[in-house]
């Protein structure tokens, strides 16, 4: 009995100790959860902005649809066009090292050939013009390579109709003599054109071993400056997508974020659409009064009336974007009390008055820079010289009294590199041609106050107005 009673009591008591255990376990769990979540609640503001921005851009990525990788056929075609221009220039060959030009003609960048550091052993591409039976000129492409690298060169996947013609040199040979004997033994005093990226020791090596070397001429440069239909579609995709990324970021921005935090959000937004990162300048207010920022930017905190300048470039399918937007973040949805307080404050605050004047000047300069960009865009025709585009923008800004604050050229060519010739400055007399692509990026910089720049990318057409390759231009500081 007793035993049974006490057993029953023990069993009765069991659930209550269980309850205590369960509730203390719950409390422990709760504390643990809070402790674990604490850093996340601090992080969550930027995470929410991040997620908002990625969700926004993912809603419509149709800007990517018409961009396709450059085909093998197009690479071969580029070398054939080069060969025709070389023949017209009266040179025996064109020689280049891995770099941007090699990327254009052979799909190999400097880093994909030299992942470690620039090599002291010359690896060169040589393009010679050859006359076919029908009188057509085509490119004979060859390579000069260290003997032990021959296998690697063949594995690079350089687009070619035939297996690669590779002249090899052993470590203890003179590579320039090897090149001369291997490719130019029947050419008396061969003249070769060297690419602008060629390192000096190689140029000197060539010229002290029987080659006459000459620099690039205008017709050779014009080949890469004049974009093909495929290049135009890639440039349109990467530049439009970069503008859309800035817009997506902007629509999610809140006061309190720093410049560096906005950089992170923009980087992640660009990565989410398959772009690779290149450069990303986020400058608030007076930090944007130096066109490329300074070394001390990053910590400035975003406020409601901050003039934000974002200049950003990304890469997609080997081509570069370079665009800039200047804007205010979206205004807060006003609560009635907030609106009343703002109204009351506006009556007497002297601070508000200077704030008002600053705001008005931002609006005025914003529109002025847009007008300058419009004026410059009208000069993107084959009848213009490079300088005409710059002067068109500069005239608008100078007439408004801000001339000295427009401190840089109005733009530059853009392609595989963000900055390519021709450069649009007051001193450049080069004629524009249909197919050239340029940035158009006037700016006004008020030291200690703010800076504004609008940058879009334009294509020069044979007839009529230029085509914009960065989607649509800015409309206002609240709709950049
Ligand atoms: C060019 O190189 C890229 C990247 O290395 C590669 O994805 C692409 O297939 C190459 N194109 C051709 C035509 O070989």
TrEMBL record:
<feature type="domain" description="Peptidase M24">
    <location>
        <begin position="234"/>
        <end position="462"/>
    </location>
</feature>
<dbReference type="InterPro" id="IPR000994">
    <property type="entry name" value="Pept_M24"/>
</dbReference>
<dbReference type="InterPro" id="IPR050659">
    <property type="entry name" value="Peptidase_M24B"/>
</dbReference>
<dbReference type="InterPro" id="IPR036005">
    <property type="entry name" value="Creatinase/aminopeptidase-like"/>
</dbReference>
<feature type="transmembrane region" description="Helical">
    <location>
        <begin position="20"/>
        <end position="40"/>
    </location>
</feature>
<dbReference type="Pfam" id="PF00557">
    <property type="entry name" value="Peptidase_M24"/>
</dbReference>
<dbReference type="InterPro" id="IPR029149">
    <property type="entry name" value="Creatin/AminoP/Spt16_N"/>
</dbReference>
<keyword id="KW-1133">Transmembrane helix</keyword>
<keyword id="KW-0472">Membrane</keyword>
<keyword id="KW-0812">Transmembrane</keyword>
<protein>
    <submittedName>
        <fullName>Metallopeptidase family M24</fullName>
    </submittedName>
</protein>
């Amino acid at each position: 009995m007793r035993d049974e009673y006490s057993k029953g009591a023990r069993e009765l008591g069991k659930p209550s100790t269980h309850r205590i255990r369960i509730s203390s376990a719950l409390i422990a769990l709760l504390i643990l959860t809070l402790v674990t979540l604490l850093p996340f609640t601090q992080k969550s503001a930027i995470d929410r902005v991040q997620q908002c921005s990625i969700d926004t851009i993912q809603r419509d990525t149709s800007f990517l649809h018409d961009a396709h990788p450059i085909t093998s056929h197009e690479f071969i075609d580029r070398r054939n066009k080069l060969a025709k221009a070389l023949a017209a220039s009266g040179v025996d060959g064109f020689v280049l090292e891995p770099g941007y030009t090699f990327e254009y003609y052979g799909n190999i960048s400097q880093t994909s050939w030299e992942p470690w550091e620039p090599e002291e052993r010359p690896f060169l591409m040589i393009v010679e013009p050859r006359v076919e039976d029908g009188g057509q000129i085509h490119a004979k492409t060859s390579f000069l390579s260290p003997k032990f690298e021959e296998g690697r060169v063949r594995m690079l996947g350089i687009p070619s109709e035939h297996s690669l013609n590779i002249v090899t040199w052993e470590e203890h040979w003179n590579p320039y003599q090897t090149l001369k004997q291997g490719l130019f033994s029947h050419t008396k005093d061969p003249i070769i054109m060297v690419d602008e990226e060629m390192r000096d020791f190689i140029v000197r090596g060539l010229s002290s071993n029987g080659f006459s070397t000459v620099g690039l001429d205008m017709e050779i440069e014009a080949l890469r400056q004049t974009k093909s239909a495929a290049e135009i579609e890639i440039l349109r995709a990467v530049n439009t997508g970069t503008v859309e990324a800035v817009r997506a970021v902007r629509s999610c921005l809140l006061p309190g974020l720093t410049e560096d935090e906005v950089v992170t959000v923009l980087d992640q937004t660009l990565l989410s659409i398959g772009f690779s990162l290149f450069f990303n300048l986020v400058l608030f207010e007076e930090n944007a009064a130096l066109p490329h920022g300074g070394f001390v930017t990053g910590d400035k905190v975003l406020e409601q009336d901050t003039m934000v300048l974002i200049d950003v470039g990304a890469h997609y399918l080997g081509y570069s974007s370079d665009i800039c937007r200047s804007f205010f973040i979206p205004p807060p949805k006003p609560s009635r009390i907030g609106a009343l307080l703002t109204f009351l404050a506006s009556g007497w605050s002297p601070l508000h008055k200077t704030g008002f004047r600053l705001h008005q000047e931002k609006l005025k300069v914003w529109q002025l820079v847009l007008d300058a960009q419009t004026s410059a865009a009208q000069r993107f025709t084959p009848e213009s010289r490079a300088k005409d585009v710059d002067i068109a923008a500069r005239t608008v800004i100078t007439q408004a009294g801000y001339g000295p604050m427009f401190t840089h050229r109005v733009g530059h060519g853009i392609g595989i590199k963000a900055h390519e010739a021709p450069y649009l400055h007051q001193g450049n007399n080069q004629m524009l041609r249909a197919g050239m692509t340029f940035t158009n990026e006037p700016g006004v910089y008020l030291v200690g106050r703010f800076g504004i720049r609008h940058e879009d990318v334009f294509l020069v057409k044979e007839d009529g107005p230029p085509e914009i390759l960065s989607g649509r231009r800015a409309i206002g500081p609240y709709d950049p």
